[in-house]
Amino acid sequence: MFLQRIGSKGIRLGTLFDRAAARHPANFVILDHDLDIAPGLGRRVTLTELAELVDDIASRLWSVKVRPGDHVVVHKSDGFDISLLACAVARTGAVPVLLSPKLDGATVAELLRRVGQPFLVTDQDKLEHHLPGEVFDLSRRVLLASGEHEGATSFASLAGVERVPAVSMPIDHPTLITHTSGTTGTPKLAVHTGMSFQARYRPQATVVRTAVGRSEPIAVHVSFVHSRMFTAMPISILQGHPLIVLRDDDPRTVGDLFTQIPPGFIEAHPNTFLRWEELAGDPRGPLANVKYFSSTFDAIHPRTVNTMLKASRRKGRRFAQAYGQSEVGPIAARTYSLKDGADFNGRCVGVPFPGMTGVRVVSRNGAPVSKENPGFIEVRSDGRIVTYLGEHQRWQKQVNDGWWRMGDLGYRTRFGCLHLLDREVDEIPGVQSTLEIEDKLFTRLPELVEVIIIPGPDGRAVPVVCTRDDVSLDELAWKTAVVDLPALGDPVQWRLEDLPQTATTKIKRLELARLLSAGPAG
After folding, report:
1. CA pair distance 358, 374, nearest whole angstrom
2. Is the distance from CB of 421 to CB of 438 less than 8 angstroms?
3. Contacts of 198 (CB under 8 A, 6+ apart)
4. Residue 21 has what DSSP assignment?
5. CA separation for the pair 259, 261 (Å, rounded)
6. Does residue 466 carry a pLDDT above 90?
């Protein structure tokens, strides 16, 4: 869209930290973990130090013949250095391909085949305990971010190589490859360009710039391999915000850190905010300084939004929710305040960004689209990926005259607000919206930390529930909560850690339904 294109120079990941350090040399990044590629650097690092690190790692990559246009797969133990490695790879003109640390070895091997003899950056632990030996045959060369392994080259052994200048690539050239969530099978490899990333950056950067002052810290708990990290990170460091990067979302450690360095803006996964509800009762007030909470990855429940807003003591505090997808970036957004309460309509996901994104809802049966007859949600944005690597025909199937099929069902009100009811693959006959039911159950049962409505073996809607501290579900309270809801099967209680999850903590609903059908053996 035209406001995404004007004067765009592309995201330029390879020089991102150079440009940020030139503007704000003494600004810093706070980490809750050590970097595998630079364990001695510490957990409070200046932008100048990070620019130096990215330059150094890029030079080491160049020394082993990584060149413009090559693919470099990064699949290592979790940490912010995954994102830094992506910047270092981009600095050489090569294309980083980021694979989640949560992916199993067989899936990683399959994606290596799809890429076609890439360089592989991993670590000793992954090679010894998680990856099959065939990754050596599937890779041009295996590099280690940490540790040692026969047949692999460690970054440590490349220390002191000659520095090389950054390579500038055209803005329409692939700049990063991420993978989709994999909720419906093997993940797809989404190809982003410098232009498409910059198009995603602009609407989000505008929101942050107007939301909080430059000196206020921004805290980010986002999967390091997700495309969202590569807009959240540039926004923070280019605008001059101190950046708090979290690998873990444990409420105790997060509460300690936020008490010491109170963030003014937090970006996190919906399930992370759900877990942080207990921070609202922390007497130290770790969330008291937050002006804006933000989430973009999945449906977030009204109870969680209201709990976060109550925990802040800032005037004018807001919770911003964006609707989007890995393939297209943020498309529509809305904000919530305390006056919306804990039982607002969470299915309303907002309106498009004027001049930047577009939304339409297409009828499935020729009848007018409405809440009772939801249609296919399709969107437009210059932030759209240019292909799925090795699966271009699959990409083409989702494009219709420039409109991208999201795989979601919904409708728009006469005021233009988009309402999301369900994923197409999650639709259950006789249930208007599983997400709406889940919202209501969360609001009515405070002890719930997760509830997922999936089809049972007989096709009937079955709630899978998880409770705080795994306490037994109160049968009477449950019956009271569902009395006015569509007919549901008996609830099935699971431990939260047993639910199949993606890299962004989404629940894999299809996999969960399969496990439920398999019974105890599954």
Report:
1. 18
2. no
3. 4, 8, 9, 10, 11, 171
4. H
5. 6
6. yes
Q: What is the pLDDT of residues 182-225, one digit of tens each?
A: 655 688 999 999 999 899 888 888 888 888 888 899 999 999 99
Helix axes 302-311, 434-444, angle to 10 degrees: 40
What is the pTM for the complete model shown? 0.91
Under 8 Å CB-to-CB from 74, ≥6 apart: which residues?
82, 85, 86, 89, 96, 97, 98, 99, 121, 122, 225
Give dist(CA 73, CA 143) in Å, integer.
10
Q: What pLDDT shows up at residue 185?
A: 67
Q: Which residue has the tokens 């973990």?
A: 33
Q: Got the DSSP string for 79-104?
A: STHHHHHHHHHHHTT-EEEE--TTS-
* Position 270 confidence tier, pLDDT thresholds 50, 70, 90: confident
By three-state DSSP, how is residue 325 classified?
A: strand
Helix, strand, coil share of the chain (percent; to 5) = 35, 25, 40
**How confident is the model over 248-267, as a mean pLDDT?**
96
- Pure H helices in 261-327: 270-275, 302-311
CB 97 within 8 A of CB 105: no
How does pLDDT run across 495-513, given as a tens digit for each residue? 988 988 876 677 888 888 8
> For residue 172, how many C-alpha atoms fall within 13 Å in the half-sphere facing its CB?
2
Question: pLDDT tens digit string along 159-169?
Answer: 999 999 999 99
Q: What is the mean pLDDT of residues 101-113?
A: 95
Residue with tokens 């909470």: 293
CB 31 within 8 A of CB 45: yes
Name 392's Cβ contacts closer than 8 Å, sequence gap at least 6: none
